[in-house]
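Q: What would this chain look like folded?
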Amino acid sequence: MPELTRRRALGAAAALAAAAGTQTVAVARAADTGHHGGPEAFDEVYRGRRITGRAADGGGHHHEHGAGYAVFIDGVELHVMRNADGSWISVVSHYDPVPTPRAAARAAVVELQGAPLVPLGMPMPMPMPQQ
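A: My prediction, written as structure tokens:
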């Protein structure tokens, strides 16, 4: 029987971690998938903010990348997009993919830190110049 080396032990640990991570993402995706193959609708209060998600009506550009799904924080649409690998990103947490639109809404709430979500396409207020 071959001797257990540090390299083999680390290789086995990495393989187990990768398998567990893949299974966790698959379970999360399956749990948040509706009967038509898309994510299930949700409506909850998370950290004091109302987050909702549902199948979109298909009217307009905002829903093309979101695979026909719309997410809202306190009634304001959060632009979401589904990646090729099935993960989701939002305009607020663009570089942090998550497994579901619900997770994208929760991540955006955390990132906003209580600030209101400004609708996509709305100009940001300019700061007043200092005198």
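The first helix runs from residue 6 to 31.
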